[in-house]
Write a structure and sequence with these properties.
- By secondary structure, this protein is mainly alpha-helical.
- It has two domains: 1-241, Growth Hormone, Chain: A, CATH 1.20.1250; 244-426, Growth Hormone, Chain: A (Up-down Bundle).
- The protein is 74% helix and 0% strand.
Amino acid sequence: MADAAFREDGRGASPRALLSWCLYDWANSAFPTVITTFVFAAYFTRGIAADEVAGTTQWGVAMSLSGLAIALAGPVLGAIADRGGRRKPWIAAFTALCVVLSALLWFAKPDPSFALYALVLVASANFAFEMGGVFYNAMLPGLAAEGRLGRLSGWAWGVGYAGGLTCLVVALVGFVQAENPLFGLDRDAAEHVRATAPLVALWFALFSLPLFLWTPDVATTGIGLAEAARQGIATLAGTLRRVGEYRMIARFLLAHMIYADGLNTLFAFGGIYAAGTFGMEFSEIIVFGIGLNVTAGLGAALFAWADDSIGPKRTILVAVTGLAGFGAVLVLIDQVTLFWAFGLGLGIFVGPAQAASRSFMARLAPPHLRAEMFGLYALSGKATAFIGPALLAWATAASGSQRWGMATILAFFVIGGLLLLTVKEPANRPGPGAHPSTSSG
């Protein structure tokens, strides 16, 4: 049965269960890739909003509000879920919400009167996407032994990049860039672009099913939702009051908050830098973005062994060092060919920084607080997301150069890495299904 207890041999869930868990990354990655990064975001600013400047501003405000909601709700709902036990009902609820809201974006016609409609749906769907990830990530420590968490996290992240890219290619070839879009869609009404939203909804719904069918969940505690909410909020309040007892977790979350801000800013402004400084056309940026996702996925999968071999902390340090080094080259060079080479090289370190961060959180989180801690992990990825873009914008305006603006991102990688050096890795805990040893002494 899908929700049967974990295997009692100390090795965690079955291969089918692990693959099903990884497939959820394949499923949900379609949303950020197609909706919030490449296709629908561009459609909103160029097709729905009154003009690109207004559209960019409106989109930024909507996503900021969505991020704020994620930061506030993540720890609270995570704490409640810890009291109730099971993760999959929460994942199912937020997955269904993201799927429905994404499908409804089909009705966002290319007219400014649909701007508010589109923004509310996208911001709400993004909230659901991120919240589902909180509980999905919280399943990780219960699925594999301590020595295999890095591989599972890294492979899943690599599968996620592959899934997002595959859905993007289907969207581009079948709809956006097709001379004769599938189903005879009307290009004048932007139906060929709007159709990518239902595509994402179908993709997410279909490929998330294996998780619910075959990946085991933890047992329910039998506590009702109202009581779980009361206990969860009380537990979260207690955790925050006793933050000194979780010093290493707090330090890691602070380090993650800083280097994640650098990554988020890099994603947000990488295309703008490529266009403004190197004169790349939109079609070239799309191809570059696809290539960057390919190298990031390969990096996540290849570094998965390093995570388990040298530990997630060292893997993250290697990754942020690579990001800072390749990033420094990218702000100094002026040839497009070199930009392609070092830009794609930089992507190799993006995936490991993300995947190893997840596995490190899985190792650090106390078993009874996993969802709560992953809620705080989500908060650390959103709480200061405005600082990177603001600092980049200020440096660009003050210097009159995009290069100086992009250079500010390097500081986030360096500072985040230095803070990470102060975090001690935890001693290995027993893997899933393992029992604490006993002695007569």
